[in-house]
């Protein structure tokens, strides 16, 4: 598709922001002076509750929804019973994620009964699945607004329609997707920030719903990404994560002689004391140039999340992953050659339809061979509309459960051993959370969690920490 058709015209975004002003005026009678003057919410402001399921991409989208809500004069609450507007940003990646959402949305009937004017909105990936939107239409009649990821940028218009007209609003157009720049963002926290560098996915792994609900790959303009990172660095953000379903194919659609490694190089050149992470890398496009760039650039975190999904070539082919076991292992070897201490994490699916016990053993042996620092293990979940959901799946749920447990046990042992190797070393960590009881949580450059003691004034600072203990999940340390 033509780039001009993908980019939402600035005038259309301006119109949405104009609607925000209109909604703020409309709510004006209830707003306190601060909010009426556009100075932010105060005690008289209407309240919004935004709940997010799924991946970081959804977290980043929710920050835009909150940005719009703030512009409309809403304050925020963590309690859905107090909220005038509830927004639930859903995920469709596995059945479990969808079921959790439906359970929680069902429970909102009680909240709405107590607060009859409450507006309930559902958005995100699951709403882009036709059968889910239909289910909400028919069986969840207390839901007022349903919209898909492609029209998130039109949220003010959709909410205004609800405020001014009777009836429910469903807006889930089937399309390839757009890029909407210049939306307001209300970020959670002041230390870590998400920066989307691209949207959508072209890979169509046979089990995965994401390309069906998020549309085709489209890369943001590099200048806008660099500007956003520059602003974040100047604002004091220390941990910046570049987001995309497959960041390694960044730029392929731009025709600008710019790839992901080139983008990283330019992000690295931005002044400031910050670290850059990125998610997710597809192994088929993880290039030697990327590895060399990571090794050379001091601001790029020594961490890669490189999902392998299966250790067996037949299964990888059936998954449409477009790499094989040997190719994956070769990339791991090359990464470690360049960066011996790199933290490597991964995703794996157990119980893909037709996976035999021998094929499962290949997955187990791959994780033992690589020794990942951490692993996210999932049991295959059939997704309506994906090819894998149609395949014969003879292995019983119980057998899949046993295989799942074997992977988890093997990985726990490896994670514990890897963490043990940190004990006695001194690490530079970023303090990213402070408890009221004098405890701090921090991350190493490679992303390992460290618990330590210290005052809340250290939140957001880099510290040197001596690692004194370790468990499967975390490290324990003391300030040097
Ligand atoms: N784009 C990323 C990639 O290709 O590595 C992954 C994104 S997906 C949101 C995160 C993980 O969910 C995948 O790596 C995969 O392990 C898992 N996943 C996706 N679809 C699944 C399904 N149908 N059943 C079980 N796990 C699934
Ligand atoms: Fe899903 Fe594959 Fe795309 Fe990742 S690369 S989002 S697993 S289709
Ligand atoms: Fe879920 Fe959508 Fe992310 S399906 S994992 S929220 S891209």
Give the helix level as a range of percent: 25-40%
Small ligands present: S-adenosylmethionine, iron/sulfur cluster, FE3-S4 cluster
Q: What's the arrangement of strands in the largest beta sheet? A: 2-1-3-4-5-6
Strand content: 15-25%
Count the E strands.
19
Q: Can you summarize the main beta sheet?
A: 6 strands, parallel
Specify the overall morphology.
globular
Rg over C-alpha atoms, rounded to the nearest angstrom: 23 Å
Helix count, DSSP H or I runs of 4 or more residues: 15
Describe this structure in words.
This protein has 480 residues and is α/β, with parallel strands linked by helices. The chain contains 15 helices and 19 strands. It has a 6-stranded parallel sheet with strand order 2-1-3-4-5-6, with helices on both faces. Strands 15-16-17-19-18 form a 5-stranded mixed barrel. Strand 1, helix 4 and strand 2 form a beta-alpha-beta unit. Helix 2 packs parallel to helix 7, helix 11 runs parallel beside helix 13 and helix 14 runs parallel beside helix 15. The longest helix has 24 residues. The protein is globular, with a radius of gyration of 23 Å. The termini are far apart. 40% of the residues are buried. The mean pLDDT is 94. The protein binds S-adenosylmethionine, iron/sulfur cluster and FE3-S4 cluster.
